[in-house]
Each structure stands twice: as structure tokens, then as C-alpha cells.
Specification:
754 residues; alpha+beta; 4-stranded antiparallel beta sheet
Length: 754
């Protein structure tokens, strides 16, 4: 009899325990992530009374795959373009939280006597809030349309990027066993160049590839292609010296800019859920309940540090960014937990063997406790704000109001500022991509060509290929923005601007000459003067070539077309115009969309009858009905199933409106459930004194008044099926009726017959 391999039997134990425990946690309305961790404790080696996993090491392979898909899914929801739009509030808030919690965690670790490396990793674990838990909590509590929720989501986006940076930096520190400023700076620069190169090249190639192959990409093929791209980037990242998780995150963020992002996210979700569950279960396997009891005091201390620290630093950061006190306190209380990245950083420490084994279960326990309290902390934000509002002196309140008003004032950017910012973005991006391409060509392509064509001939072919690839980017570095409106305005405004403008052009030409010299000097062995002359000739050809100019413009158009494709598609279908929404945010008003459910009590009624404006102090600005948009609908406009209502109002008004329609829907559902009766079939005998004698079916009112249906009449030895409405009832007829029981009873008693 064949035996089941241990990997399959262990996987069965994991999934069975995870399924049972998460069902219990669902019933208790707790996050399923906690259920996975508890299932891991039950399936781990610490519990000997029940069947447990026999080979933990083999499961770690599955867990590593889980981390890859978790980071891939996180990247799909991240997008670098979204990062550029989060604004100063999110950036200032996230930086304050990360620096503050890193310091608090490191200090706490040292105070507990855990040593430098354990304390450093502890700081990294405590600096990231849980994106998954907060999203779920806001959904369950109906807070996603609140103003502070937008601030929290922006902070989470920035924290995701910081988490990726932390993983790289902590890995560098762990390998070198000490902190060196130059080494960390090199790691940051290397990471920045890698991210920039992958993003630019990925946006240029991948959306175009998906567009060209769209007719072949059904559900199955799209899933395989997406996973293949993810794992391909994982290999590239590991070959470049980074973690597999970083590669998955980068590919997810690239695909997040494509039109197919939502489709890929939907297809990848079951895969992510499966392997993510295995990862979180493997987290629980490493927890020994006896060790948790032994370290109960540190767990309590770190839990308090997380909750108090996140509330204080998040509130401070949001307040420093110019948001009101209420928004700052609500944001701080929402972020008072740690989650997925704490597990991943803890796993990184164990994998690199730089942290002690006790740190992992302690951090997991802290995450479980803080996650459990998340909904309660969000609810506590309002009472905390009211308490703070009573205790803060009036003088401080006035100063904070002035600070908030001053920070939101729109200032006109100078023309120089606009030009320099645009040039820095263009030069930085194209320079990074060009240098990486030169490095890859010199490292891999040139040696391959020289293998088949040794000597000067192979070197010239390799140089020609490199020049063909980098020439459009070099031209962009030198010539972009030289004819822009800002450049022309500065040129004509003052003669004193012309010198600096010409200097900017010369500096960019010198930069391109230096870049060109890298492959030329490497592949051609000649005197320095000759190489410099060759470089100058190439620069002149690049600047004057009309064909190269056209090619450069087409490349840029394709890149920006791919980059903005998803945004344009979303704006076309979005119920809310984002620029209009941002304009309203400055006035404490918000736009939110609500869908009319199929059996809603509002269905079929006019806006005048519903009177939402008087009852909830909100206005319906748009009704979206399929592809049709009804802007500023009139009072006679009626609502139909699946209509999407775009509503404008303040936070409290939108909350009141949501509760109002939910209560109406609930009340209507209860009334319908109590009134609902099953259809029955009954027969009645028409006696001599019945009022039906001599009347036709249509005259009797059986259908119109009693809502019943005559399906047959037995008359003597004859049976009339589905009699026509003109059939006249006779004495002794047995009439078969279909209808609700109560109505059939009333009909038999003659109460509904006219």
C-alpha cells in the first residue's frame, strides 16, 4: 500500500486546521489572519495531543511562495503612480510614524536587554501598520468614505514602500553585522536605480505586450502570464542581489498601471489566498504557547508601545501636515496595530540568522493582540477627540486652526521651480535607465558577441548596439524642455535668465558625453583625444538627427500612454471625478457612491418622495444607470435597481445617510419576510347560494380583487383546464384556485368577491 508523501499530508493538516479555525473566527467576526495563526499553533510541533505537521522545513517552501504572492498582490494595489498622488499629508505622516516607531522599538529592545540586532529588527517590525486589517475594519464599519480614511490609506501606501526599503536595508545590515553610512547609501542608490529601471522599462513594454495579446488572453492564459511575469521578476531581483519578495512587489506595481490590473487582481486572489494562508499558518507553527507565557511581560510592554506609539506618532504626523485635530486623532487610532510586514521582517531575521528565536513569536503575539483591538480603537477615536477638545487650551486651538489654514493655502509655484523639477525628473529617470542598459550590455551582450566575433569587429558591433539603445534617451536628456513654455517664458522675461538656461543645456550635454564615454572607453582601445573626438561627433549626430528626434518622441508618447491608460479608463467609468472630489475635500465635503439594491424600499420612488436632502442633509449630484449619467437629477427622477447614486455631504451627514438607507432596507426586508407566503392550490365548491353563480371569471374579481388564479373547473363528468376569462360559473362547479393561503381563505368566505 503506497504512502502519502509527507509534504501532501502536512499540507492536508495545515489546510484542514486552517479551514476549521477560520470558520470559527468568521463566526466570532474576527480577522481570518488571526485564525491562520491559531491554526498554525494547533498544527505546529508545540501541540502533541493532535496530528501535527511532521516536516516543518518543507512547509517553509510553501510559505516563501506565500510571501511572493502576498507581495505581488500588495504591489497590484500599490502602484507608483498612486504614491505620487498621495500628497504631503501621507508622506509626512508615514515618515513621522516610521522614524518614531523605529526609534521606540529599538529603544524598547535595548531596554529589555535584547541586543543591537534584535532591537533593530524589532523597530522595523513595529513601524508598519496592517493594510489588510485596516481595509477590512473600514469596510465592516462603513468608514471608507470618511475623510480620515483617505488620509490613512495614503499613509499605508507610503508605508508599503518604506517596508520594502526596510527589508533591503535590514538585509544589508544583517549581512555586514554592523551599520556603515556609505554601505547603506550604496544600498539605497542601488535599490532606487533598480526600482526606477524596472518601472520605466516595465511600463514601456508590459502594457503594450498585454494590449497586443489581449485577444488571446482568456481567464486561464491571463493567470499563467501574470504569475509568469511575477516569478520572472523574482528571478531578476534575486540575480540583482535583492529579495524575491521585492521582485514580486515590483512586478505587481508595474501591472497595477495596466488596464488589466483589476482582472489580474481578481484572478490572482485565490492563489494569493491559498499560499498566503499557508504562510500565516507557518507563522503560527513557530509559536510555542509556553514561550509566550514565559515572555508575557515583554509582549504586554511591546503591545503598549505599539498602540500608544502609533497613536501618538501618527496623530503628530498628520497634524504636522496641516490636517485638523479630529482627522489626526482618527488617523492615529486607526493605525494602532502591526500586521503582515511584521511577520515578513521577522521571517527575514530568522532566515538570515541574526535575530533570536524568541523574537518571532513575541511579535506575532503582539500583532494578534493589536489586530483584535483595531475595531475598538477606531471607535474610541471620537471619544478621544472630544476629550482632547475639552482639555486643549483655546489659545492652542486657535494656533492649530491658523496652522491648518496656512498649510492648505495654494501657493503659485515659480516658473524656475517648475522647470527645474521637470528637468530633474527627466534627467534622473533617463540617466538611471541608460546606465543600467549600458551595464547589462557590457556585462552580458558584449561578451557574447566577442565570443563569436573576437577583436575590434565584435567590439564595434557591441558599441553600435549600445548606441542604438541609449541614443533616444540621451537625446531626451539633452533636448527635453528646451522649447517648453517655462523655458521660453524665462528666456524672454529677463536677459539674466539666459545664462543659467544655457548652462543647464551645457551641463546636460556634458552629462551625456560622460555617459557615452563609458561604453566607448570600455570597447575601443585608442588615445583619449581620439575617444573624446568620437564622443563629440556622436553627441552632435544625436542632437541633429531628425529620425532620432521622432523616435524619441514616439517612445515618450508610448510610455506616457501606457502609464495613463488605466487612469483614463477608471475616469471614464468612475462615478466620482477625482479632481472635483479633491476640491470638495478642502471644504470638508465628500463625494460617496451608493448602489440601489434590487429589493430596496427606495426602488420606484422619486427623489421628491424620498426627500434625502431634508432627512439626511445630503444632495444627490449624479445617478449612474448603466452607461447613462443623469447629472443634477430633478425631484421627479425615480430610482431603479442597481442605480448608483453619487452623493455629496459632510462626514457626519454621509454616515447618517448610510445608516438611514441601511435601516430602511433592513426594516423593509423584515416586513417582506413576515408577509411572505407560499403559493398554494385549493378547491372551492360553488353552492346554490354563492354569489359566483352566473358570473364569469373576469366579472367575479378573483384575479383582480383576490390576486388568485383559476386553473381548472370540474363540471359534472367534464374537466375544463385553464378556462378562458369569459367562462361563467354554474352551481355545483368545483373550482381549482392558485394563490396565497390567506387570500384563498378570504375568497372561500366570499369576502373579496364583488
Amino acid at each position: 500500500m503506497s504512502e502519502v508523501p509527507s509534504l501532501i499530508s502536512d499540507l492536508a493538516v495545515i489546510l484542514v486546521s486552517a479551514g476549521l479555525v477560520t470558520l470559527l473566527f468568521k463566526k466570532l467576526k474576527q480577522p481570518v489572519v488571526l485564525g491562520y495563526v491559531v491554526a498554525g499553533i494547533l498544527a505546529g510541533p508545540s501541540i502533541e495531543e493532535i496530528p501535527t505537521v511532521s516536516d516543518v522545513e518543507s512547509i517553509r517552501i510553501w510559505a516563501d511562495i506565500g510571501v511572493i504572492f502576498l507581495l505581488f498582490a500588495l504591489g497590484l494595489d500599490f502602484s507608483f503612480k498612486k504614491l505620487m498622488k498621495v500628497g504631503g499629508t501621507a508622506v509626512i505622516g508615514a515618515i513621522t510614524i516610521v522614524i518614531g516607531m523605529m526609534t521606540a522599538g529599538y529603544t524598547t529592545g535595548l531596554a529589555l536587554g535584547w541586543g543591537h540586532m534584535n532591537s533593530l529588527f524589532l523597530g522595523g517590525m513595529l513601524s508598519m501598520s496592517s493594510t489588510t486589517i485596516i481595509f477590512k475594519a473600514f469596510d465592516d464599519m462603513g468608514l471608507r468614505n470618511q475623510r480620515f480614511a483617505g488620509v490613512v490609506f495614503g499613509i499605508l501606501v507610503v508605508e508599503d514602500l518604506f517596508a520594502v526599503l526596510l527589508m533591503v536595508l535590514l538585509s544589508t545590515v544583517a549581512v555586514s553585522k554592523h551599520v556603515e553610512g556609505m554601505e547603506l547609501l550604496n544600498s539605497v542608490i542601488k535599490l532606487g536605480v533598480f526600482l526606477l529601471f524596472c518601472f520605466v522599462v516595465g511600463i514601456y513594454l508590459i502594457p503594450s505586450f498585454l494590449k497586443q495579446t489581449k485577444r488571446f488572453l482568456n481567464e486561464e492564459t491571463m493567470l499563467i502570464v501574470a504569475i509568469g511575469l511575477c516569478l520572472g521578476m523574482v528571478i531578476i531581483a534575486t540575480q540583482a542581489g535583492f529579495s524575491s519578495a521585492l521582485g514580486a512587489f515590483v512586478m505587481g506595481s508595474i501591472l497595477a498601471e495596466t488596464v488589466e490590473a483589476e482582472r489580474i487582481e481578481r484572478l490572482i486572489k485565490p492563489v494569493k489566498d491559498l499560499f498566503g494562508a499557508i504562510f500565516f499558518v507557518s507563522v503560527g507553527m513557530l509559536i510555542d504557547p509556553a514561550m509566550l507565557w514565559e515572555y508575557k511581560v515583554p509582549i504586554l510592554i511591546i503591545t503598549l508601545v505599539v498602540m500608544v506609539g502609533q497613536i501618538c506618532f501618527a496623530s503628530l504626523g498628520v497634524l504636522l501636515s496641516g490636517q485638523p485635530i479630529k482627522i489626526a486623532i482618527q488617523s492615529g487610532f486607526s493605525l494602532a496595530q502591526i500586521g503582515e510586514f511584521a511577520f515578513i521582517i521577522a521571517s527575514l531575521g530568522l532566515t538570515l540568522k541574526v535575530t533570536d528565536s524568541f523574537l518571532y513569536p513575541i511579535v506575532v503575539a503582539v500583532s494578534v493582540v493589536t489586530t483584535f483591538f483595531t475595531p475598538y480603537m477606531i471607535r474610541l477615536a471620537e471619544p478621544a477627540y472630544r476629550l482632547a477638545d475639552r482639555w486643549i487650551p483655546e489659545r492652542w486651538k486657535e494656533w492649530l486652526m491658523k496652522f491648518t489654514a496656512g498649510s492648505t493655502t495654494i501657493r503659485q509655484k515659480s516658473t524656475w521651480h517648475k522647470l527645474l523639477k521637470a528637468l530633474a525628473r527627466i534627467v534622473g529617470t533617463y540617466t538611471a535607465v541608460t546606465l543600467v542598459l549600458i551595464f547589462l550590455m557590457l556585462r552580458f551582450v558584449a561578451p557574447l558577441i566577442q565570443t563569436y566575433l573576437p577583436g575590434i569587429q565584435g567590439n564595434l558591433i557591441a558599441l553600435a548596439l549600445i548606441l542604438a539603445m541609449i541614443s533616444p534617451m540621451l537625446r531626451a536628456i539633452m533636448m527635453k524642455k528646451n522649447h517648453s513654455a517655462e523655458f521660453q517664458q524665462l528666456w524672454h522675461d529677463s536677459k539674466f535668465n539666459r545664462g543659467p538656461l544655457i548652462s543647464l543645456i551645457i551641463l546636460r550635454i556634458v552629462l551625456c558625453a560622460g555617459i557615452l564615454m563609458l561604453p566607448i572607453a570600455r570597447l575601443i582601445n585608442a588615445a583619449a583625444g581620439l575617444l573624446l573626438a568620437l564622443c563629440c561627433v556622436l553627441i552632435l549626430l544625436i542632437i541633429t538627427s531628425k529620425r532620432l528626434k521622432k523616435h524619441s518622441i514616439l517612445m515618450e508618447r508610448r510610455f506616457f500612454s501606457n502609464l495613463s491608460a488605466r487612469e483614463l479608463e477608471e475616469e471614464r467609468h468612475a462615478p466620482i471625478n477625482q479632481r472635483f472630489a479633491n476640491h470638495l475635500l478642502e471644504r470638508d465635503l465628500h463625494l460617496a457612491d451608493f448602489e440601489v439594491k434590487q429589493n430596496s424600499p427606495s426602488m420606484g420612488k422619486s427623489l421628491k418622495e424620498l426627500n434625502f436632502r431634508q432627512k439626511c442633509n445630503v444632495n444627490i449630484v449624479t445617478i449612474i444607470r448603466g452607461e447613462q449619467r443623469i447629472n443634477i437629477p430633478g425631484g421627479e427622477e425615480r430610482l431603479y435597481p442597481f442605480d448608483k447614486l453619487v452623493v455629496v455631504g459632510a462626514d457626519d451627514d454621509l454616515t447618517h445617510f448610510r445608516r438611514y438607507i441601511e435601516e430602511r432596507y433592513k426594516q423593509s426586508s423584515e416586513e417582506q419576510s413576515t408577509k411572505r407566503e407560499e403559493m398554494r392550490m385549493e378547491q372551492i365548491l360553488i353552492s346554490s347560494d354563492s354569489r359566483l353563480v352566473g358570473r364569469s371569471i373576469i366579472e367575479s374579481g378573483i384575479r383582480d380583487k383576490a390576486a388568485c388564479l383559476v386553473i381548472g373547473i370540474e363540471r359534472g363528468n367534464r374537466s375544463i383546464q385553464n378556462p378562458p376569462p369569459t367562462t361563467v360559473f354554474e352551481q355545483g362547479d368545483i373550482v381549482w384556485l392558485v394563490g396565497e393561503r390567506s387570500k384563498l381563505v378570504r375568497l372561500s368566505e366570499g369576502k373579496t368577491i364583488v
